[in-house]
Write a structure and sequence with these properties.
heterodimer; A: alpha/beta; Four Helix Bundle (Hemerythrin (Met), subunit A); Rossmann fold; 4 domains; 5-stranded parallel sheet; 22 helices; globular; B: alpha/beta; 5 strands; diguanylate cyclase (chain A); CheY-like_superfamily (chain A); protein kinase activity (chain A)
Chain lengths: 563, 137
């Protein structure tokens, strides 16, 4: 019985064996559950059967996650809770059809392949740490009309940093392929003639990420009727056959970001019922949303300040306190004026709801709220809140940080470097001969070029990198954990890719190049000094012929004056 | 006396699957010497021979549950001089307090991650400035 710690085997293969054993036993368990659920549906409630069902669910809730089936575990947990709540509320004798259905649904979760969550996270971390790897690389899959060549579009979008592919095969085959690559954010570009078929396949998919894949329509016919028809079919975007590329790229980015599970959120939950709070907490957390549970309303203000949520989710009646009054009180503090407040309430009288809304809250979720609905409702509101925050803090043309904020980021990164001793770089980027573009083609085209550069930067840089619009055609980038040589390589690639983009103006196409200056943040006393050094390096690059990257201090090594 | 080092864990869990994966987690990943028991009774029978540095108890077990087992271990003439940790699937803040009040130094939620279970236990022990004083509560 006593095991010697030296006796080691191959942990992961033994773990896999155990997982398999668990899956077999859990399958039997689920079969038993199904049988019992059917019995209760047909023959009515039985206390002993119910207790057995709860015990089995409890076991699954506590073990499935350990063996790589976290979804199954969470579902079993919420089902156990639901049944117990029903029993406690005197509804015992009635086992709802919903409960039976949910029990049946458990099986599908066991059949989907186990997700070794921890390992995935570890892998994501290592790839992120690779210097120059990208943040969110969006996959674009093009579904062409027959006899139409879309390779040019794939090539053009690839220049923006998307992973592009034109799909061959029937609608069903295409969706099957897409179903195998759901780990990445994917956007489908689809020729109008094939939308109906593709949509049908998407909707029929058993995988939720596939069903929710955003789809942009490419259509020759840009009439109202055609647009309306595409909207009715469920397209998320509409472009002509020769789309404005920067605009299309931007829409792809937006859709990918909106749908991706990376749209996480931070929620403060005020709820005095611990059972309910725990349930909401688990449901939201399993959807990747950070939750801070506040039980005592007295602690609300301090928790808001330290947690800084995207939205506030609040019960309407909290013991002696009224959620409506608390919402008002929260609004006393100017920093929370724009914080979305959502009530969780069993109030279904529209007049009373409206009265509460007029006093400071934004919305009602009427209890009981289904888990899926809660997650979607919270996610979309967090997304909107973040969009609003972006609007206030980001440059309107490019969506990048405003001048003052990116300078602040440089300063903050310098402080982090001092603390941890890691290298970091700051890069000043400037478009070459930008004034000529504005003069020749007009400001509209100038803006297009600026947007294109912003999108390129966003696609090529890591999520942890910070990008800001510094001035008219100047951009400032802060790269944590990246020395100047890595930054040079990275921006040489970016300059190269950017120079290959073609823009169309006044019936002619043109290209634009960029220059970049790099400096090591940790070599300077203040962030401003580092930014100045990057600016000087940029100036040297401009004098040395533009279109490329110069690291501050390069000229000393190369010696000899450049004229 | 509770020894300074944490090497030996007495683990009580009725579910054989969980016992198997916990053994992997504690022995192979965590590097502990572990005595696996399938019931409170077995734990009572084994504890003197094994002399653990820590007792890890599942809360919900048929017959003697986790809290009852802890009580029984305490009620032995020599008492229980090492820290105890509970594992449970139903983790509510009030419950954690309840188990702490019983003298457990912590509660590990189920499902646990087999790759980090050992670290979780070590973290709980390291958070205790003086494990002995807790026995008095």
């Amino acid at each position: 019985m006593i095991k010697d710690s030296a006796a080691s085997g191959d942990v992961s293969s033994r773990l896999a064996d155990l997982r398999e054993r668990f899956a077999t036993r859990a399958a039997e368990d689920l079969q038993e559950l199904e049988r019992r659920a059917q019995v209760m549906r047909e023959q009515g409630f039985d206390q002993a059967v119910m207790e057995d069902v709860c015990a089995r669910l409890h076991r699954l809730a506590g073990s499935a996650g350990t063996f790589g089936f976290p979804e199954l575990g969470e579902a079993a947990r919420s089902l156990e809770k639901m049944l117990k709540a029903q029993a406690a509320s005197g509804q015992g004798p009635v086992v709802s059809t919903l409960a039976v259905e949910k029990i049946l649904a458990l099986r599908t979760m066991l059949e989907s392949p186990p997700m070794p969550v921890a390992e995935d996270e570890a892998m994501a971390e290592t790839t992120e740490r690779l210097e120059g790897s990208h943040g969110l690389r969006v996959a674009v899959r093009i579904v062409p009309a027959r006899n139409t060549d879309y390779e040019w579009l794939a090539g053009a979008l690839a220049a923006y940093g998307f992973d592009c592919r034109v799909m061959a095969g029937t609608d069903a085959e295409i969706i099957q392929t897409l179903a195998t690559e759901t780990g990445v954010a994917t956007v489908i570009l689809c020729a109008d003639g094939r939308i109906a078929g593709i949509m049908e396949q998407l909707d029929a998919s058993v995988q939720e990420p596939v069903r929710r894949m955003p789809l942009v329509c490419l259509s020759e016919d840009v009439s109202f009727d055609s647009r309306y028809q595409m909207a009715a079919l469920g397209a998320d975007g509409f472009f002509g056959r020769s789309p404005d590329l920067p605009e299309l790229a931007e829409r792809i980015e937006y859709l990918a970001l909106e749908r991706s599970s990376r749209v996480q959120g931070r929620v403060v939950l005020v709820e005095d019922d611990p059972e309910l709070a725990e349930h909401y907490f688990l449901v939201l957390r399993s959807a990747g949303i950070d939750v801070c549970w506040v039980r005592d309303p007295m602690r609300l203000m301090s928790e808001l300040s330290s947690f800084r949520p995207d939205i506030l989710l609040m019960d309407v009646q909290l013991g002696p306190y009224s959620g409506v009054t608390l919402a008002r009180m929260v609004r006393f503090d100017p920093q929370w004026l724009s914080l979305p407040i959502i009530y969780l309430s069993s109030e279904d009288n529209r007049d009373n709801q409206l009265e509460a809304l007029s006093r400071g809250a934004d919305e009602f979720l009427t209890k009981p709220v289904s888990d899926g609905y809660l997650v979607r409702a919270v996610r979309i509101r967090c997304f909107r809140a973040r969009q609003l925050f972006r609007l206030m803090n980001r440059d309107s043309l490019t969506g990048l940080l405003k001048h003052s904020l990116i300078k602040l980021e440089a300063e903050k990164e310098l402080a982090r470097c001092r603390r941890d001793g890691h290298p970091a770089s700051v890069v000043m980027v400037d478009l070459d001969h930008f004034k000529e573009i504005n003069d020749t083609y007009g400001h509209r085209y100038g803006d297009m070029v600026i947007k294109a550069l912003a999108n390129t930067l966003r696609n090529r840089l890591r999520e942890t990198d910070m990008i800001g619009r510094y001035g008219g055609e100047e951009f400032l980038v802060v790269l944590p954990h990246c020395d100047t040589e890595a930054a040079r390589r990275l921006f040489t690639d970016i300059a190269d890719a950017f120079s290959q983009l073609t823009f169309n103006g006044n019936n002619e196409s043109f290209g634009v190049t960029l220059s970049a200056g790099v400096a090591a943040i940790n070599n300077y006393v203040t962030g401003d000094d580092a930014v100045d050094a990057a600016d000087q390096a940029l100036y040297q690059r401009k004098r040395a012929g533009r279109n490329g990257v110069t690291v501050f201090g390069d000229d000393e090594r190369n010696s000899g004056p450049t004229v | 006396m509770a020894s300074e080092a944490l090497n030996r864990i007495l683990y009580v869990e009725d579910d054989p699957d969980i016992r198997a994966v916990a053994e992997l987690a504690l022995v192979d990943v965590g590097g502990f010497e572990t005595c696996l028991c399938e019931s409170g009774q077995q734990a009572l029978a084994q504890i003197d021979d094994f002399e653990p540095d820590l007792v890890l108890l599942d809360v919900m077990m048929p017959g003697m549950d986790g809290p009852q087992t802890l009580q029984a271990l305490r009620n032995r003439p020599e008492g229980l001089k090492v820290p105890a940790v509970f594992m449970t699937a139903r983790l509510q803040p009030s419950e954690v307090e309840e188990y702490r009040a019983m003298g457990a130094i912590g509660v590990i939620p189920k499902p646990f991650d087999p790759m980090t279970l050992g670290d979780q236990i070590r973290a709980l022990v390291n958070c205790q400035p003086d494990a002995n004083s807790l026995d008095l509560r």
